[in-house]
Amino acid sequence: MALDKPYQDVPGTTIFDAEQSRLGYHLNQFCMSLMKAENRARFKADERAYLDEWPMSEEQKQAVLARDLNWCIRLGGNIYFLAKIGATDGKSFQQMAGSMTGMTEEEYRDMMIAGGRSIEGNRVVGEDGNAQAHRQPQGKAGRKEAN
Amino acid sequence: MARITASVYTSHVPAIGAALDLGKTGEPYWRKVFAGYEFSKAWLRDNTPDVIFLVYNDHATAFSLEMIPTFAIGCAAEFQPADEGWGPRPVPVVKGHPELAAHIAQSVIQDDFDLCIVNKMAVDHGLTVPLSLMCGQPQAWPCPVIPFAVNVVQYPVPSGRRCFNLGRAIRKAVESYDRPLKVQIWGTGGMSHQLQGPRAGLINREFDNTFLDRLIADPADLANMPHIDYVREAGSEGIELVMWLIARGAMSGEFDKRAPRVAHRFYHVPASNTAVGHLILENT
Protein backbone atom coordinates (compact mmCIF):
# COMPACT_ATOMS: atom_id res chain seq x y z
CA MET A 1 0.00 0.00 0.00
CA ALA A 2 1.34 3.43 -0.88
CA LEU A 3 2.16 5.83 1.92
CA ASP A 4 -0.39 8.55 2.66
CA LYS A 5 1.05 11.93 1.64
CA PRO A 6 -1.60 14.51 2.53
CA TYR A 7 0.90 17.35 1.98
CA GLN A 8 1.00 16.96 -1.78
CA ASP A 9 -1.91 19.36 -2.35
CA VAL A 10 -0.26 22.32 -0.58
CA PRO A 11 0.49 24.88 -3.33
CA GLY A 12 4.04 26.05 -4.02
CA THR A 13 5.47 23.65 -1.46
CA THR A 14 7.70 20.56 -1.64
CA ILE A 15 7.92 18.49 1.52
CA PHE A 16 11.37 16.99 2.05
CA ASP A 17 10.31 13.40 2.72
CA ALA A 18 12.31 10.18 2.39
CA GLU A 19 11.72 10.07 -1.37
CA GLN A 20 13.01 13.63 -1.94
CA SER A 21 15.90 12.93 0.43
CA ARG A 22 16.93 9.88 -1.60
CA LEU A 23 16.77 11.86 -4.86
CA GLY A 24 18.80 14.72 -3.45
CA TYR A 25 21.35 12.87 -1.34
CA HIS A 26 24.49 13.87 -3.24
CA LEU A 27 23.21 17.37 -4.03
CA ASN A 28 22.58 18.01 -0.34
CA GLN A 29 25.87 16.45 0.75
CA PHE A 30 27.69 18.72 -1.73
CA CYS A 31 25.97 21.65 0.00
CA MET A 32 27.15 20.40 3.40
CA SER A 33 30.74 20.47 2.18
CA LEU A 34 30.43 24.28 1.84
CA MET A 35 30.41 24.60 5.62
CA LYS A 36 34.22 24.48 5.47
CA ALA A 37 35.96 27.72 4.49
CA GLU A 38 38.55 25.96 2.31
CA ASN A 39 35.82 24.17 0.35
CA ARG A 40 33.94 27.45 -0.18
CA ALA A 41 37.14 28.93 -1.61
CA ARG A 42 37.71 25.97 -3.94
CA PHE A 43 34.06 26.03 -5.10
CA LYS A 44 34.22 29.76 -5.83
CA ALA A 45 37.49 29.37 -7.74
CA ASP A 46 36.05 26.78 -10.17
CA GLU A 47 32.40 25.84 -9.55
CA ARG A 48 32.15 23.30 -12.36
CA ALA A 49 35.31 21.44 -11.34
CA TYR A 50 34.17 21.33 -7.71
CA LEU A 51 30.73 20.03 -8.68
CA ASP A 52 32.33 17.34 -10.85
CA GLU A 53 33.90 15.86 -7.70
CA TRP A 54 30.39 14.86 -6.59
CA PRO A 55 28.26 12.00 -7.99
CA MET A 56 25.37 14.38 -8.73
CA SER A 57 23.25 14.25 -11.88
CA GLU A 58 24.14 16.70 -14.66
CA GLU A 59 20.77 18.39 -14.13
CA GLN A 60 21.50 18.88 -10.42
CA LYS A 61 24.82 20.51 -11.33
CA GLN A 62 23.09 22.81 -13.84
CA ALA A 63 20.51 23.81 -11.24
CA VAL A 64 23.29 24.74 -8.79
CA LEU A 65 25.24 26.69 -11.40
CA ALA A 66 22.03 28.57 -12.31
CA ARG A 67 21.36 29.24 -8.59
CA ASP A 68 17.76 28.21 -9.32
CA LEU A 69 16.61 27.04 -5.89
CA ASN A 70 13.17 25.91 -7.09
CA TRP A 71 14.92 23.71 -9.64
CA CYS A 72 17.28 22.37 -6.96
CA ILE A 73 14.30 21.53 -4.73
CA ARG A 74 12.55 19.66 -7.57
CA LEU A 75 15.70 17.53 -7.83
CA GLY A 76 15.73 16.62 -4.14
CA GLY A 77 17.42 19.65 -2.60
CA ASN A 78 16.34 20.87 0.83
CA ILE A 79 16.43 24.53 1.75
CA TYR A 80 18.53 24.08 4.89
CA PHE A 81 21.21 22.37 2.78
CA LEU A 82 20.83 24.73 -0.19
CA ALA A 83 21.29 27.65 2.21
CA LYS A 84 24.99 26.77 2.33
CA ILE A 85 25.24 27.79 -1.35
CA GLY A 86 23.54 31.09 -0.55
CA ALA A 87 25.86 31.64 2.40
CA THR A 88 28.84 30.99 0.13
CA ASP A 89 27.46 33.67 -2.21
CA GLY A 90 27.00 36.05 0.74
CA LYS A 91 23.19 35.95 0.51
CA SER A 92 20.81 36.15 3.44
CA PHE A 93 17.97 33.69 4.04
CA GLN A 94 15.53 36.40 2.99
CA GLN A 95 17.29 36.86 -0.35
CA MET A 96 17.28 33.10 -0.90
CA ALA A 97 13.62 32.64 0.01
CA GLY A 98 12.61 35.62 -2.10
CA SER A 99 14.48 34.28 -5.12
CA MET A 100 11.99 31.40 -5.33
CA THR A 101 8.95 33.64 -5.74
CA GLY A 102 9.82 35.60 -8.88
CA MET A 103 9.77 38.82 -6.85
CA THR A 104 12.65 41.24 -6.70
CA GLU A 105 14.47 41.49 -3.40
CA GLU A 106 12.67 44.75 -2.69
CA GLU A 107 9.22 43.38 -3.56
CA TYR A 108 9.72 40.38 -1.29
CA ARG A 109 11.05 42.46 1.60
CA ASP A 110 8.09 44.83 1.29
CA MET A 111 5.68 41.89 1.35
CA MET A 112 7.24 40.65 4.60
CA ILE A 113 7.16 44.09 6.23
CA ALA A 114 3.49 44.38 5.24
CA GLY A 115 2.79 41.20 7.23
CA GLY A 116 3.96 38.43 4.92
CA ARG A 117 2.16 36.31 2.35
CA SER A 118 -1.49 35.75 3.15
CA ILE A 119 -2.74 32.24 3.83
CA GLU A 120 -6.00 33.05 2.01
CA GLY A 121 -6.17 31.15 -1.26
CA ASN A 122 -2.87 29.44 -0.49
CA ARG A 123 -3.97 26.45 1.57
CA VAL A 124 -4.90 23.97 -1.15
CA VAL A 125 -3.98 23.57 -4.82
CA GLY A 126 -6.78 24.94 -7.00
CA GLU A 127 -7.57 28.06 -4.96
CA ASP A 128 -6.65 31.51 -6.27
CA GLY A 129 -3.89 32.75 -3.92
CA ASN A 130 -0.61 34.21 -5.14
CA ALA A 131 1.38 31.01 -4.46
CA GLN A 132 -0.76 28.98 -6.91
CA ALA A 133 0.84 27.68 -10.12
CA HIS A 134 -1.33 29.83 -12.41
CA ARG A 135 -0.19 33.01 -10.63
CA GLN A 136 3.57 32.50 -11.26
CA PRO A 137 5.91 34.30 -11.53
CA GLN A 138 4.78 36.77 -8.89
CA GLY A 139 7.00 39.78 -9.47
CA LYS A 140 9.21 41.84 -11.69
CA ALA A 141 12.24 39.54 -11.32
CA GLY A 142 10.34 36.57 -12.77
CA ARG A 143 8.76 38.62 -15.57
CA LYS A 144 12.17 39.92 -16.60
CA GLU A 145 13.52 36.39 -16.81
CA ALA A 146 10.51 35.24 -18.82
CA ASN A 147 11.08 37.87 -21.53
CA MET B 1 15.67 16.98 44.05
CA ALA B 2 15.91 18.91 40.80
CA ARG B 3 12.83 20.61 39.38
CA ILE B 4 11.63 22.48 36.34
CA THR B 5 10.93 26.05 37.36
CA ALA B 6 9.80 27.63 34.08
CA SER B 7 9.53 27.15 30.35
CA VAL B 8 10.54 29.65 27.70
CA TYR B 9 9.44 29.64 24.05
CA THR B 10 10.96 31.62 21.23
CA SER B 11 11.59 31.68 17.50
CA HIS B 12 15.24 31.23 16.50
CA VAL B 13 15.52 33.16 13.22
CA PRO B 14 19.17 33.25 11.99
CA ALA B 15 18.87 36.88 10.86
CA ILE B 16 18.25 37.86 14.50
CA GLY B 17 21.68 36.48 15.35
CA ALA B 18 23.21 38.31 12.40
CA ALA B 19 21.52 41.58 13.45
CA LEU B 20 23.07 41.25 16.93
CA ASP B 21 26.48 40.17 15.70
CA LEU B 22 26.64 43.00 13.12
CA GLY B 23 25.46 45.68 15.56
CA LYS B 24 22.11 46.39 13.85
CA THR B 25 19.91 46.14 16.94
CA GLY B 26 19.28 49.90 16.95
CA GLU B 27 17.77 49.93 13.45
CA PRO B 28 13.99 50.49 13.51
CA TYR B 29 13.33 47.14 11.79
CA TRP B 30 15.21 45.21 14.48
CA ARG B 31 14.29 47.41 17.45
CA LYS B 32 10.73 46.11 17.19
CA VAL B 33 11.98 42.52 17.51
CA PHE B 34 14.42 43.10 20.37
CA ALA B 35 11.93 45.24 22.31
CA GLY B 36 9.93 42.07 22.90
CA TYR B 37 12.87 40.54 24.78
CA GLU B 38 13.75 43.43 27.13
CA PHE B 39 11.48 42.03 29.83
CA SER B 40 12.86 38.55 29.21
CA LYS B 41 16.49 39.52 29.71
CA ALA B 42 15.67 41.13 33.07
CA TRP B 43 13.50 38.12 34.00
CA LEU B 44 16.35 35.71 33.23
CA ARG B 45 18.79 37.80 35.28
CA ASP B 46 16.36 37.56 38.22
CA ASN B 47 15.56 33.90 37.60
CA THR B 48 18.83 32.39 36.40
CA PRO B 49 18.50 28.61 36.59
CA ASP B 50 21.25 26.11 37.30
CA VAL B 51 20.73 24.45 33.92
CA ILE B 52 18.82 25.22 30.71
CA PHE B 53 17.45 22.23 28.78
CA LEU B 54 17.23 23.73 25.31
CA VAL B 55 15.03 22.06 22.70
CA TYR B 56 15.90 23.15 19.16
CA ASN B 57 16.48 21.74 15.73
CA ASP B 58 19.71 21.32 13.88
CA HIS B 59 19.51 22.96 10.42
CA ALA B 60 21.68 20.53 8.44
CA THR B 61 24.67 21.56 10.54
CA ALA B 62 25.78 18.85 12.97
CA PHE B 63 23.61 16.28 11.19
CA SER B 64 23.89 15.94 7.43
CA LEU B 65 21.95 13.31 5.50
CA GLU B 66 24.45 10.73 6.76
CA MET B 67 22.50 10.46 10.01
CA ILE B 68 19.15 11.96 10.97
CA PRO B 69 18.32 11.29 14.63
CA THR B 70 14.74 12.11 15.56
CA PHE B 71 15.75 13.09 19.11
CA ALA B 72 19.38 13.76 20.11
CA ILE B 73 20.58 14.75 23.60
CA GLY B 74 23.92 16.53 23.96
CA CYS B 75 25.87 14.92 26.81
CA ALA B 76 29.24 16.63 26.21
CA ALA B 77 31.02 19.08 28.52
CA GLU B 78 30.96 21.77 25.83
CA PHE B 79 29.59 22.52 22.38
CA GLN B 80 31.21 24.84 19.82
CA PRO B 81 29.15 27.39 17.82
CA ALA B 82 28.99 26.05 14.25
CA ASP B 83 30.16 27.56 10.98
CA GLU B 84 26.92 27.42 8.96
CA GLY B 85 28.52 28.90 5.87
CA TRP B 86 28.82 32.52 7.01
CA GLY B 87 31.57 31.67 9.55
CA PRO B 88 30.87 30.80 13.23
CA ARG B 89 28.80 33.30 15.25
CA PRO B 90 30.99 35.29 17.67
CA VAL B 91 29.23 33.92 20.75
CA PRO B 92 30.51 32.06 23.83
CA VAL B 93 31.15 28.33 23.81
CA VAL B 94 28.14 26.48 25.21
CA LYS B 95 29.01 24.61 28.41
CA GLY B 96 26.99 21.44 28.91
CA HIS B 97 25.91 19.56 32.01
CA PRO B 98 27.08 15.98 31.33
CA GLU B 99 25.85 14.55 34.66
CA LEU B 100 22.27 15.76 34.34
CA ALA B 101 22.22 15.02 30.60
CA ALA B 102 23.31 11.42 31.18
CA HIS B 103 20.72 11.05 33.94
CA ILE B 104 17.95 12.37 31.68
CA ALA B 105 19.06 10.10 28.82
CA GLN B 106 18.98 7.04 31.05
CA SER B 107 15.57 7.88 32.51
CA VAL B 108 13.87 8.96 29.27
CA ILE B 109 15.16 5.98 27.24
CA GLN B 110 13.81 3.64 29.90
CA ASP B 111 10.52 5.50 29.48
CA ASP B 112 10.45 4.25 25.82
CA PHE B 113 11.77 7.37 24.02
CA ASP B 114 14.79 6.23 22.03
CA LEU B 115 17.14 9.20 22.29
CA CYS B 116 20.36 9.40 20.32
CA ILE B 117 23.21 10.20 22.74
CA VAL B 118 25.63 12.75 21.29
CA ASN B 119 29.05 13.41 22.81
CA LYS B 120 30.40 15.68 20.09
CA MET B 121 28.27 18.23 18.28
CA ALA B 122 28.56 21.78 16.97
CA VAL B 123 25.48 23.89 17.74
CA ASP B 124 23.88 26.19 15.17
CA HIS B 125 21.64 29.27 15.26
CA GLY B 126 18.73 27.12 16.44
CA LEU B 127 20.43 26.96 19.83
CA THR B 128 22.54 30.13 19.96
CA VAL B 129 19.92 32.66 18.78
CA PRO B 130 17.53 31.89 21.69
CA LEU B 131 20.46 32.30 24.10
CA SER B 132 21.36 35.63 22.48
CA LEU B 133 17.77 36.86 22.65
CA MET B 134 17.45 35.97 26.34
CA CYS B 135 20.98 36.89 27.49
CA GLY B 136 22.20 39.61 25.11
CA GLN B 137 25.93 39.51 24.39
CA PRO B 138 27.68 38.23 27.54
CA GLN B 139 31.27 36.95 27.76
CA ALA B 140 29.90 33.61 28.93
CA TRP B 141 26.37 32.15 28.97
CA PRO B 142 24.83 32.43 32.46
CA CYS B 143 24.59 28.68 33.14
CA PRO B 144 25.20 25.24 31.60
CA VAL B 145 22.95 24.24 28.69
CA ILE B 146 21.86 20.75 27.62
CA PRO B 147 21.20 20.84 23.85
CA PHE B 148 18.31 18.66 22.73
CA ALA B 149 18.01 18.45 18.94
CA VAL B 150 14.80 17.35 17.22
CA ASN B 151 14.58 16.37 13.56
CA VAL B 152 12.24 18.75 11.79
CA VAL B 153 14.21 18.75 8.52
CA GLN B 154 13.35 15.41 6.93
CA TYR B 155 9.68 14.51 7.02
CA PRO B 156 8.09 12.91 8.97
CA VAL B 157 9.05 14.81 12.07
CA PRO B 158 7.79 13.53 15.45
CA SER B 159 4.11 14.23 16.11
CA GLY B 160 2.88 16.87 18.52
CA ARG B 161 1.48 14.13 20.71
CA ARG B 162 4.84 12.37 20.92
CA CYS B 163 6.62 15.63 21.65
CA PHE B 164 4.19 16.46 24.46
CA ASN B 165 4.62 13.02 26.02
CA LEU B 166 8.39 13.28 25.67
CA GLY B 167 8.21 16.52 27.66
CA ARG B 168 6.41 14.62 30.42
CA ALA B 169 9.19 12.00 30.44
CA ILE B 170 11.82 14.75 30.66
CA ARG B 171 9.97 16.28 33.62
CA LYS B 172 9.96 12.89 35.39
CA ALA B 173 13.68 12.47 34.67
CA VAL B 174 14.56 15.91 36.06
CA GLU B 175 12.47 15.35 39.18
CA SER B 176 14.33 12.12 39.91
CA TYR B 177 17.76 13.78 39.87
CA ASP B 178 19.25 13.88 43.37
CA ARG B 179 20.82 17.34 43.39
CA PRO B 180 18.57 20.37 44.08
CA LEU B 181 18.97 22.01 40.65
CA LYS B 182 16.64 24.59 39.18
CA VAL B 183 16.10 23.68 35.52
CA GLN B 184 14.42 25.71 32.80
CA ILE B 185 13.23 24.08 29.61
CA TRP B 186 13.16 26.11 26.44
CA GLY B 187 11.24 25.21 23.30
CA THR B 188 12.36 27.03 20.16
CA GLY B 189 11.63 27.47 16.44
CA GLY B 190 8.58 28.74 14.54
CA MET B 191 6.25 30.49 14.38
CA SER B 192 4.63 30.55 10.94
CA HIS B 193 7.18 30.66 8.14
CA GLN B 194 8.00 29.04 4.84
CA LEU B 195 11.46 29.31 3.31
CA GLN B 196 10.91 27.48 0.03
CA GLY B 197 9.07 27.59 -3.27
CA PRO B 198 6.48 30.03 -4.60
CA ARG B 199 4.71 30.01 -1.19
CA ALA B 200 7.85 31.37 0.58
CA GLY B 201 7.05 34.23 2.96
CA LEU B 202 3.81 32.74 4.28
CA ILE B 203 2.69 34.22 7.61
CA ASN B 204 -0.48 33.25 9.47
CA ARG B 205 -1.11 35.55 12.44
CA GLU B 206 -4.42 33.96 13.32
CA PHE B 207 -2.93 30.47 13.46
CA ASP B 208 0.05 31.66 15.49
CA ASN B 209 -1.98 33.48 18.11
CA THR B 210 -4.43 30.61 18.45
CA PHE B 211 -1.44 28.30 18.86
CA LEU B 212 -0.10 30.51 21.69
CA ASP B 213 -3.53 30.56 23.39
CA ARG B 214 -3.87 26.80 23.22
CA LEU B 215 -0.26 26.15 24.23
CA ILE B 216 -0.86 28.19 27.36
CA ALA B 217 -4.29 26.92 28.32
CA ASP B 218 -4.80 23.43 26.86
CA PRO B 219 -1.59 21.89 25.49
CA ALA B 220 -2.89 18.32 25.91
CA ASP B 221 -5.53 19.13 23.28
CA LEU B 222 -3.17 21.14 21.05
CA ALA B 223 -0.87 18.11 20.98
CA ASN B 224 -3.51 16.27 18.90
CA MET B 225 -3.05 18.61 15.93
CA PRO B 226 -1.74 16.59 12.94
CA HIS B 227 1.36 17.51 10.92
CA ILE B 228 -0.60 18.56 7.87
CA ASP B 229 -2.26 21.39 9.80
CA TYR B 230 1.14 22.87 10.67
CA VAL B 231 2.34 22.58 7.07
CA ARG B 232 -0.82 23.94 5.49
CA GLU B 233 -1.54 26.71 7.99
CA ALA B 234 1.91 27.73 9.31
CA GLY B 235 4.16 26.94 6.33
CA SER B 236 6.54 24.08 5.63
CA GLU B 237 9.02 25.34 8.23
CA GLY B 238 6.28 26.27 10.71
CA ILE B 239 6.30 22.58 11.67
CA GLU B 240 9.17 23.52 13.99
CA LEU B 241 6.40 24.45 16.44
CA VAL B 242 6.05 20.80 17.52
CA MET B 243 9.20 21.43 19.58
CA TRP B 244 7.30 23.90 21.77
CA LEU B 245 5.13 20.99 22.92
CA ILE B 246 8.20 19.23 24.40
CA ALA B 247 8.85 22.21 26.66
CA ARG B 248 5.15 22.57 27.50
CA GLY B 249 4.84 18.86 28.34
CA ALA B 250 7.65 19.26 30.87
CA MET B 251 5.63 21.74 32.96
CA SER B 252 3.76 20.36 36.01
CA GLY B 253 1.00 17.89 35.14
CA GLU B 254 -1.53 20.12 36.89
CA PHE B 255 -1.07 22.53 33.96
CA ASP B 256 -1.79 19.98 31.20
CA LYS B 257 -5.34 21.28 30.82
CA ARG B 258 -5.08 24.76 32.32
CA ALA B 259 -2.81 27.80 32.19
CA PRO B 260 0.24 28.27 34.41
CA ARG B 261 1.37 31.83 35.22
CA VAL B 262 2.18 33.68 31.99
CA ALA B 263 5.13 35.93 32.85
CA HIS B 264 5.50 37.30 29.32
CA ARG B 265 3.95 37.05 25.85
CA PHE B 266 5.18 38.68 22.63
CA TYR B 267 4.36 38.37 18.95
CA HIS B 268 5.80 40.31 16.02
CA VAL B 269 5.91 40.09 12.21
CA PRO B 270 8.42 39.95 10.58
CA ALA B 271 11.97 38.98 11.37
CA SER B 272 13.32 38.20 7.93
CA ASN B 273 10.89 35.50 6.64
CA THR B 274 9.37 34.61 9.96
CA ALA B 275 6.74 35.44 12.58
CA VAL B 276 8.42 35.83 15.97
CA GLY B 277 6.58 34.36 18.94
CA HIS B 278 7.77 34.33 22.53
CA LEU B 279 6.35 33.15 25.87
CA ILE B 280 7.59 32.69 29.42
CA LEU B 281 5.54 30.33 31.59
CA GLU B 282 6.26 29.84 35.28
CA ASN B 283 5.73 26.57 37.10
CA THR B 284 4.33 28.04 40.31
Gross morphology of chain A is globular
- Name given to the CATH homologous superfamily of the largest domain in chain A: Dioxygenase LigAB, LigA subunit
| Tally of distinct domains of chain A | 2
Q: What string gives the helices and strands of chain B in order?
A: EHHHEEEEHEHEHEHHHHEE
Keywords, please?
heterodimer; A: 147 residues; mainly alpha; Protocatechuate 4,5-dioxygenase, Chain A; 2 domains; B: 284 residues; Protocatechuate 4,5-dioxygenase, Chain B; two-stranded antiparallel ribbon; 10 helices; globular
Task: Write a brief caption for the model.
The complex is a heterodimer of chains A (147) and B (284). With 147 residues, chain A is mainly α. Chain A has helices spanning 18-23, 25-33, 37-45, 47-51, 58-65, 69-74, 79-88, 93-99, 105-113, 140-146.
Provide an overview of this structure.
The complex is a heterodimer of chains A (147) and B (284). Chain A has 147 residues and is an all-alpha fold. Chain A folds into 2 domains: 15-89, Dioxygenase LigAB, LigA subunit (Protocatechuate 4,5-dioxygenase, Chain A, Orthogonal Bundle), CATH 1.10.700.10; 101-147, no CATH class. Chain A contains 10 helices and no strands. Chain A has helices at residues 18-23, 25-33, 37-45, 47-51, 58-65, 69-74, 79-88, 93-99, 105-113, 140-146. In chain A, α2 packs parallel to α7 (79-88). The mean pLDDT of chain A is 94. Chain B is α/β, with parallel strands linked by helices and 284 residues long. Chain B has one domain: Protocatechuate 4,5-dioxygenase, Chain B. Chain B has 10 helices and 10 strands. Chain B has helices at 14-21, 28-34, 38-46, 98-110, 125-135, 160-175, 205-217, 219-222, 227-234, 242-249, and strands spanning 3-10, 51-56, 71-74, 78-79, 94-95, 116-118, 145-150, 182-188, 261-271, 274-282. An 8-stranded mixed β-sheet of chain B has the order 6-3-7-2-8-1-10-9, sandwiched between helices. In chain B, strands 4-5 form a two-stranded antiparallel sheet. In chain B, α4 packs across α6 (160-175). Chains A and B meet through α2, α6, α7, α8 and α9 of A and α1, α7 and α9 of B.
